[in-house]
Amino acid sequence: MKKILWFVLMLMLAFNLAGCGGEKPQVQDDKKQAASSEKLKIAFVYVGPVGDGGWSYAHDQGRKYLEQQIPDVETTYIESVPEGADSERVITELVEKGNKIIFATSFGFMDSVIKVAQKYPDVKFLHCSGYKTAENVGTYFGRMYQARYLTGIVAGKTTQSNVIGYVAAFPIPEVIRGINAFTLGVRSVNPNAKVKVVWTNTWYDPAAEKEAAKSLLEAGADVITQHQDTPGPQQAAEEKGKFSIGYNSDMSKMAPKAVLTSAVWNWGPYYVETVKAIKEGTWKSNQYWGPMSDQIVDLAPFGPMVPDDVKKLVENKKQEIISGKFDVFTGPIKDQTGKERVAAGQQMSDADMLSFDWFVEGVEGTIPK
């Protein structure tokens, strides 16, 4: 009887221990789930695929940098979202899934952001390259025209035909401003050079953008640049044995024999600082337009075909821009007709630069209405 009682007691003890042991993993799982649920959810909306090698790729690199720098955030993204009404649906769905910060990364998402933001006042929305704001909506962009000017110097020093091709997306101030800055850079070192513009009315259409570059090469261009999200124009230049200037990210991998340099975006630090401010409760709606001194815009490394004297020339001018000694849109500046638009010594205001609707002297092409 004692043996039976002892056996029963031992069996009960074993069950209790097993029960206690079995509870521990559940407690740990609960803690993990709680930690996961406490992460700040952030969503990114891209107009193109993250593999475009350009605009959306650069933003996605910034998203990854954000995750590395702030571990207690959980990010997600939706790629290839059409601009217009469909983007409103996508942004709404992302908010409904619990995302508290939305980064909408294309100009055409602006109206959708404003509409959705009105319905969700507790969510913060950051819209890239737009101009409409609200209490919970801010805008952000970088002064890419500064980097564009520097790449113009490289192109102006490289061209032999004095014809440079520019494959342009849409005739909006952002794109026009980049064309003008690039042309001013070109003509600062080569007053005889012309910049020919072809519009594609696309952000991401590899075939159309490559064909546009081909038409410029056939028209005599020996350097091609672009405001597009694909490396198609770069590849077109390489196939013809000509040179190119990349955009958005370092495009030298796509056309190593052609790419002289690229005007590049570095979104990561901005995303980190913005999320930190929101987490700390110090963020307020604003319109951020970061200069080269913030490193949000920069140049990619030079290709081996760029001479040292050109590198030095560009670096000197870059330092002048960073220090504030030189401003790209400082007069005298004339338009295509020869009319003076900016007087000598005068600097264009941000408002004027953000509403560009005319080309500077040296640009060949028209601005569709």
Structural description of this entry:
By secondary structure, the chain is α/β, with parallel strands linked by helices. It has helices spanning 2-37, 55-69, 85-96, 110-119, 144-158, 173-189, 206-218, 232-239, 268-280, 308-323, 350-353; strands at 40-45, 73-78, 101-104, 124-128, 137-142, 163-168, 194-199, 223-227, 243-248, 259-265, 287-290, 297-299, 333-334, 340-342, 363-364. It has a 7-stranded mixed beta sheet, sandwiched between helices. A 6-stranded parallel beta sheet has the order 2-1-3-4-5-11, with helices on both faces. Helix 5 (144-158) runs parallel beside helix 6 and helix 5 (144-158) packs antiparallel against helix 10 (308-323). It is globular. Residues 40-323 form the ABC transporter substrate-binding protein PnrA-like domain. Residues 1-20 form the signal peptide. Pfam families: Bmp. Keywords: Signal.
What brief labels describe this structure?
single chain, 369 residues, alpha/beta, Rossmann fold, 2 domains, 7-stranded mixed sheet, 6-stranded parallel sheet, 15 strands, 43% helix, disordered N terminus
